[in-house]
Specification:
With 171 residues, the chain is an alpha+beta fold. Helix content is 61%, strand content 18%.
C-alpha cells in the first residue's frame, strides 16, 4: 500500500470513529438527564475553552483538507523532446498499462510501477506470473515492448527509448 493510501485510510478511520463517538454520546445524552444537565452547566461556565477548542478543531480540519489535496494531486512527468516540451499525465499511462496487462492476463492481478528517470527516460517495472515457458516469456516481452512503444509514440508523442523491466514472479 502506498504511503498516501495509508495516511488517507488512517484519517478516514479517525473521522469515522469520531462520528460514531458523537452518535453514541448523543444517544447517551437523550437517556441520561444528569449527564445532560452537567454538560449544559459546563458549556455555560467554560465558554472560552470551547472558543479555543473550536479554533483547534478548525486548524486540524484545514490541515487534513490541505494534506488530502496535496496527497491526491495529479502527478505529471515532463518529457523533453525536440523541438517541444509536453506534459504527460501519469494516471493516463497507468490506466493504459493496467488495461494492457488485463488483456494479457485477465485472471491475474499484475503489479507494475511507472517511473521517469533522472535521465528523462520512462521506466516500467512489471511483475507477471512465472507460468509461461521461456518462448512465451520472450514473445510476451517483445509484444509488450512493441505495443507500449506504439502507445507512447501515437498517443503521447514520446518517441525516445524506454526501459521495460519484466519480473517473472512465482505463484
Amino acid at each position: 500500500m502506498r504511503t498516501e493510501n495509508v495516511l488517507f485510510s488512517a484519517i478516514h478511520f479517525f473521522v469515522v470513529f469520531f462520528v460514531l463517538l458523537v452518535g453514541a454520546f448523543s444517544l447517551a445524552l437523550s437517556k441520561l438527564v444528569t449527564l445532560r444537565n452537567l454538560l449544559m452547566e459546563s458549556l455555560l461556565a467554560r465558554q472560552s475553552f470551547f472558543f479555543v477548542f473550536g479554533y483547534v478543531l478548525l486548524g486540524v480540519g484545514m490541515a487534513l483538507l490541505i494534506g488530502l489535496f496535496v496527497l491526491n494531486g495529479k502527478r505529471y512527468y515532463q518529457i523533453k523532446m525536440l523541438p517541444h516540451r509536453m506534459s504527460v499525465d501519469l494516471p493516463m499511462i497507468q490506466d493504459y498499462l493496467e488495461e494492457h496487462w488485463k488483456r494479457r492476463f485477465p485472471h491475474e492481478k499484475i503489479l507494475f510501477n511507472v517511473f521517469y528517470t533522472p535521465l528523462k527516460k520512462i521506466e516500467l517495472i512489471v511483475e507477471v506470473p512465472d507460468s509461461l515457458s521461456s518462448e512465451e516469456q520472450n514473445e510476451l516481452i517483445q509484444r509488450a515492448e512493441k505495443e507500449i512503444g506504439s502507445f507512447f509514440a501515437d498517443k503521447l508523442g514520446y518517441v525516445r527509448a524506454f526501459n521495460l523491466i519484466v519480473q517473472f514472479k512465482r505463484s
